[in-house]
Amino acid sequence: MLFRQMYDNETSTYTYLIADANTKEAALVDPVIEQVDRDLKLIQELGLTLRYCLETHIHADHITGTGKLREITGCDGIVPENARVACANRSIKDGEILKLGEIEIKTIATLGHTDSHNSYLIDRDRVLTGDSLLIRGCGRTDFQSGDPGLMFDHVTQKLFTLPDETLVYPGHDYRGNQVSTIGEEKLHNPRFVGKDRSSFIEQMNNLNLPDPKKIAEAVPANQQCGNTPIMAEV
Amino acid sequence: MLFRQMYDNETSTYTYLIADANTKEAALVDPVIEQVDRDLKLIQELGLTLRYCLETHIHADHITGTGKLREITGCDGIVPENARVACANRSIKDGEILKLGEIEIKTIATLGHTDSHNSYLIDRDRVLTGDSLLIRGCGRTDFQSGDPGLMFDHVTQKLFTLPDETLVYPGHDYRGNQVSTIGEEKLHNPRFVGKDRSSFIEQMNNLNLPDPKKIAEAVPANQQCGNTPIMAEV
Fold it and tell me: What's the pLDDT score for residue A227?
């Protein structure tokens, strides 16, 4: 397997490139519109064919690169169930497995940051957690139908029950960390350590964060696959 | 082995944490002074003992965290041969091997960016290249006794002769890339592809880059291990 984590400096967003080394089929998870040229160049240099662009969720802080990538490569744009993105090629739901050559990408629905959100478990040993579980943190739950109770349930019951050595690759990091493990987060994530469901909810309801800078443009644009013409209906 | 790449957003610098999973001995390569708290917290959470802070070279764009880390942890500060850092605990030269538990860190002197610069080959499968070889680029050679001819010789004769699958971890990246391979760089690095020694030198002598913002403070501070009191003589 070929696996690359890439970073968008302006929005601190991680994009992931996953490819089967034999079949050369590739997927991008959470591409960023400003980085499409970088991502395409790498895909071309590595001799890969982009099959899928997967979203963990409808982002509020950046515009997806999926529409532009789909226009250029003909790949499928795939969003979580209930994401209300009419232009996506298809949606993918909890438990569903997407094959990429020999690689298995298993969807684990982890709601709470938004009301449609997937984590993706790659070959059982690494999980892309989007904005649910972050390194020593978690996504906020105060907009886009966020729900701190669901966040607590899905992180503790679906992610923290994965093997301790599972690598955690988040959708963002604001401190320069790139990867963690489930074991580390269970021990050291201050949002969860020593918290029960109700104290977690209380904490999340009192973060008083400002809105993301791009929310007003990013959410509607992402519901249009990054503002490109509608190509298919789910 | 435990291996973590961490990022400093302000200067686009990568710091590396390497540790033996059994003995828990750890080394940091190219720590950044503003990130010392982050790095120490991770070391503590992972139950590691910091034995070494290694520099690839005397940086012109950021101040090293080594002095501060040494003051707090008692680790050794190690610099390349001829680095003129009187406060370092020791220097390490081409071909020398540093053991970290079962891990072998082999020094490959790769001059050119500055006149004292080491790459570090970790257990033969990944190489930390500092500011010599970057992803699809290389360090500049126009200050601190830089030498484009030496850069060409050492990258092409010492790094490009490593096995193609060797992972390349640079000291910086400005486009959000984190890792490459020797094979990829031989094929796709525009600074080297199709260049002989003299056309490489000509290219490097005509980059006309502005000085790094922090050069006036960073170089003298780094010659003092990041401005902390002198603790040992090499």
Answer: 66
Helix ranges (H only) for A25-180 are: 36-45, 66-73, 148-154
To the nearest whole Å, the CA of A214 is away from the closest chain B CA by 20
User: Is residue B218 in a domain?
Assistant: yes
Residue among A91, A87, A145 at smallest CA distance from A118:
A91
Closest alpha carbon to A223 in A88, A75, A115: A88
* Chain B contact for A6 (CB, 8 A cutoff): yes
Q: Which amino acid is at B191?
A: R
What is the spatial distance between Cα B70 and Cα A51, in angstroms, rounded to a whole number? 49
pLDDT band at B87; cut points 50, 70, 90: confident
Q: Is the ipTM of this complex over 0.85?
A: yes
Note whether residue B123 is domain-resident.
Answer: yes
* CA distances from residue B72 to B69, B157, B228 in whole angstroms, order as listed: 5, 39, 11
CA dist B157 → A219, B108, B152, B160 (Å): 50, 11, 8, 6
Count of domains for chain B: 1
Report yes or no on B50 lying in a domain. Answer: yes
CATH of the domain at A126: 3.60.15.10
B232: which 2 tokens? Answer: 């040992």
pLDDT at A231: 41
For chain B, say whether A44 makes contact (Cβ under 8 Å). Answer: no
pTM of the full predicted structure? 0.94
A188, closest residue in chain B (CA to CA): B45
Q: Tokens at residue A86, please?
A: 């009419």
- Give DSSP secondary structure letters for A116-136: SBEEEEETTTEEEEETSEETT
| CA nearest to A192, candidates A184, B91, B110, B39 | A184
Positive or negative torsion for Cα B137, B135, A174, A171:
positive
Using the Cβ of A195 and the Cβ atoms of chain B, whether some distance falls under 8 Å is answered with no
Mean local confidence (pLDDT), A143-162: 96
The domain in which residue A19 lies consists of 2-209
Q: At B229, is the pLDDT very low, low, confident or very high (cuts 50, 70, 90)?
A: very low
Contact yes or no for B178 and A6 at CB 8 A: yes
A5 CB neighbours in chain B (<8 A) are: 178
Examine residue B229 and state whether it is found in any structural domain, yes or no. Answer: no
Q: In this complex, which of A5, A38, A187 lies closest to B175 when CB atoms are compared?
A: A38
Compare B228 and A205 and report the one with higher pLDDT. Answer: A205
Is residue A5 within 8 Å of residue A14, measured between CB atoms?
Answer: yes
Q: Is A167 on the interface with B (CB under 8 A)?
A: no
Are A38 and B184 within 8 A, CB to CB? Answer: no
Average pLDDT over residues B31-51: 98
